[in-house]
């Protein structure tokens, strides 16, 4: 039987999910994956540096979707003593079927989750809770301003909401916005919050009822005072999630193996540069082999694209209409630099885990909101999986995350200089002593975050023209120019495959992923 070629641009979670689902359906479609790099997994890949593995963004394997959770566990089973384990997450529970342990390293671990904010050289709960720890860290005067500001926002909200700043102020008050949101968000995006679309807030900021938080705090304070106690109420934010033993890239490396074993193709170092259009269909995709300089043309029955929309539209020939080209050219991205820093130990503090010679903190990642450093987020890879660290527990393997734009001062800084700069920032905020640094590396990631500014407000104009191309499906984070998590990206790929299999080119369901409440981890 002649197999119909489906060209899939990108070997990240969305692209590989689409490839495997096409093969599992066994309905005569052959996935041909074009990957510009030599790696598997996109921004969900794992980087191996001298035996220490880096997760370049922190990827929890948890989803509200049963389909996604089952899909992951089919690829890499959860390891345990057999029987059921329970994942607890945001006051919800999910039963996980575990398998007895063997020497096979292809499995997922059940890991505790803890994320905190580091601000004013103190640790705050994430998301921020109005508890005694927060009151003590901020002080009564600032807390009073926050409460008054929140009341004002609820009584007199900004209408209409034209920016992310409006979105946050309406939900948290201006004082809390200025304290916890403004500086960090602008550190991430590099532009003022009043220039970012409010849609980013709707998709990425989890619901939080300040009123209920205040009521809860008041009840706890009253209970303690009435009982003659003056101690902090300890509310654990530690939850659980699944995580591949060797990092997120392990999941996608195994998927890539399955795709190839089942007859799919993956072409590395093949960058899609041109899509030939005949009316409302893409007939072929041309890819540049970045190792040989040769351009190869692939015939296409359907195309599933995860490449950045700006580059996709620029490569379509004949070109789309002038308005679509203008909007696509104006789409913006935020780039990313991860610095791996290997240390003998962290600086000892009251937050260090007891009994650890390396003064390990319990967090998976820490949001650094200190205004005197560029550092945005800090990962502690030991706590994601001890198997990411070559000499665990004798060393601590850190991932420092910086948000930047290609061509700016951070991006252009030589790697040796950047590594020294990153170490100095850790010393400055009191987390390490420089004498404890053993090794490290610097990794740059282009277009890690599709931006909600530039021409984004006109994206629907562009989407309308692209959706007219019946056999072209946009999926994933960069493919849809939407800040999707990997489970959202997988769901968009699944829906694209279903559309191909049923010959139904209505793409509304794909665009609905990560918009409706059913996709959010917590309702607003």
Automatic annotation (TrEMBL):
Gene3D superfamilies for the chain: FAD/NAD(P)-binding domain
**Ranges for the Amine oxidase domain?**
14-478
A Pfam family hit: Amino_oxidase
Domain of life, per UniProt, equals Bacteria
PANTHER family xrefs:
UDP-GALACTOPYRANOSE MUTASE
User: Any idea what this protein is called?
Assistant: Amine oxidase domain-containing protein
